[in-house]
Amino acid sequence: MQFLPLHTFDNYIEAHLCLGRLEEAGINCWLMDEHSVTINPFLTNAIGGIKLMVHASQAERAQELLATLLQQPDNEQVSDT
User: Fold this and answer.
1) Does pLDDT of 79 surpass 50?
2) Are 20 and 64 in contact (CB under 8 A)?
3) Could you tell me if residue 66 is left (phi over 0), alpha (psi between -120 and 50 degrees) or otherwise beta?
4) DSSP label at 72?
5) CB-count exposure of residue 43 (10 Å: 0-12, 13-18, 19+)
6) Which residue has the higher pLDDT, 50 or 79?
7) What does the alpha-carbon distance between residue 17 and residue 1 come to, in Å, rounded to a whole number?
8) At what angle do helices 12-24 and 59-71 cross, to 10 degrees?
9) Contacts of 21 (CB under 8 A, 6+ apart)
10) pLDDT digits over 37-71, tens only?
11) Can you tell me the distance from the alpha carbon of 18 to that of 68, in angstroms, rounded to the nearest whole number?
C-alpha cells in the first residue's frame, strides 16, 4: 500500500478532527509524526509537523473533502437579533 502526505498540521487536535472526518467518508488514512510533535512541540518545524497520510488511490477524493473541511469557519457565531 502506498500512502501520500495530503496535508500537514502543527496542532494534533485539528489533525485528528480532519482524520476522523476522512475516515467517516471511507478514506484510508493515518497520522505520521503525531506522537513526536505532541510530546515535543519544538520538533514541529524540524520534522515538518503532523502529516495526514492518505492511500494513493483515494488521494484526489480526500483532497476535495479536506479542502471543504478546512474552508469551514472555526466558530460559527449565533446572532442575538
Assistant:
1) no
2) no
3) alpha
4) S
5) middle
6) 50
7) 24
8) 130
9) 65, 69
10) 989 988 889 999 999 999 999 999 999 999 999 88
11) 10
- Quickly count: other Cβ atoms within 10 Å of residue 9's Cβ: 21
The single residue listed with the C-alpha cell 514541529 is 44
Cell representation of residue 8: 500537514
What cell numbers appear for 29 in the block? 488514512
* 8: β partners: 51
Alpha-carbon span 52 to 41, nearest angstrom: 17
Q: Which pLDDT value is given to residue 21? A: 96
Band the pLDDT of 74: cuts 50, 70, 90. low
**Hey, what's the cell of 39?**
510530546
- Residue 76 in this model has a pLDDT that exceeds 80: no
